[in-house]
Amino acid sequence: MLLTIDVGNTNIVLGLYEGRGDSAKLRHDWRMRTDAQITADELALTMRGLLGEYAGKVTGISALSTVPAVLRELRVLLGRYYADVPKVVVEPGVRTGVPLLVDNPKEVGADRLANTLAAHHLHPTACVVVDFGTSTNIDAISAKGEFLGGAFAPGIEISVDALADKAAALRKVELVPPRSVIGKSTVECLQSGIVYGFAGQVDGLVKRIVAELTGGADVPVAVLATGGLAPLVLSESDTITEHVPDLTLLGLRLVYERHIRG
């Protein structure tokens, strides 16, 4: 079974795939909090606890980390606990098959590469990927699978934290849609601004990106949402066409198959 490891700034997501190619299935997935100070041994212990009975059935590993400190410990973990297991860590220099049409390809995060590969695998058209994580990343992908660049915006949770920290009369609230856009209480006003505000931000950016992608032509563009906070905005967005929660894990599987078996 292939273990995929996606280390983000907020969470670490593990996925376990069975089979290969078109017959591969994501059998299980787990989510844990990212700790930039975690050691390789602590990470291994937590992972094995989550994997449980599947810990000894891992036959391959594909991983990425957008947190440099955890990436270092991840490499130690893979060498110490999975020395005999075929593995790939997605980083600059690793063959992914994704052309990077940007000014500095080394700046492109491994998660954005994995998402690009997965999106093009799912759709032969041009694509836009909206990744709701610590930051909200909106990336453009050509119909040929080329990574064209994108836009970053502050993520939902860090925006809420910043607002609660800087405004004395405001506080953190449950991230759910309020009864109406016009909030009737401080809590509902905050929820309205968060939910509908971020939906409007995403829709505005996506529409501009799609216009540049298509040059105004009437061609199909798939808009995929992923990331832990995507469900909060999905029902309020006018532009998102599909929710793919395991998009990054799928990309990691595809990189592994190209790099190890290709």
UniProtKB/TrEMBL annotation:
<protein>
    <recommendedName>
        <fullName>Type III pantothenate kinase</fullName>
        <ecNumber>2.7.1.33</ecNumber>
    </recommendedName>
</protein>
<dbReference type="Pfam" id="PF03309">
    <property type="entry name" value="Pan_kinase"/>
</dbReference>
<keyword id="KW-0963">Cytoplasm</keyword>
<comment type="pathway">
    <text>Cofactor biosynthesis; coenzyme A biosynthesis; CoA from (R)-pantothenate: step 1/5.</text>
</comment>
<feature type="binding site">
    <location>
        <position position="131"/>
    </location>
    <ligand>
        <name>K(+)</name>
    </ligand>
</feature>
<keyword id="KW-0479">Metal-binding</keyword>
<feature type="binding site">
    <location>
        <position position="134"/>
    </location>
    <ligand>
        <name>ATP</name>
    </ligand>
</feature>
<dbReference type="InterPro" id="IPR004619">
    <property type="entry name" value="Type_III_PanK"/>
</dbReference>
<feature type="binding site">
    <location>
        <position position="186"/>
    </location>
    <ligand>
        <name>substrate</name>
    </ligand>
</feature>
<keyword id="KW-0173">Coenzyme A biosynthesis</keyword>
<comment type="similarity">
    <text>Belongs to the type III pantothenate kinase family.</text>
</comment>
<dbReference type="GO" id="GO:0016301">
    <property type="term" value="F:kinase activity"/>
</dbReference>
<keyword id="KW-0067">ATP-binding</keyword>
<keyword id="KW-0630">Potassium</keyword>
<keyword id="KW-0808">Transferase</keyword>
<dbReference type="InterPro" id="IPR043129">
    <property type="entry name" value="ATPase_NBD"/>
</dbReference>
<feature type="binding site">
    <location>
        <begin position="109"/>
        <end position="112"/>
    </location>
    <ligand>
        <name>substrate</name>
    </ligand>
</feature>
<feature type="active site" description="Proton acceptor">
    <location>
        <position position="111"/>
    </location>
</feature>
<keyword id="KW-0547">Nucleotide-binding</keyword>
<feature type="binding site">
    <location>
        <begin position="6"/>
        <end position="13"/>
    </location>
    <ligand>
        <name>ATP</name>
    </ligand>
</feature>
<comment type="subunit">
    <text>Homodimer.</text>
</comment>
<comment type="function">
    <text>Catalyzes the phosphorylation of pantothenate (Pan), the first step in CoA biosynthesis.</text>
</comment>
<keyword id="KW-0418">Kinase</keyword>
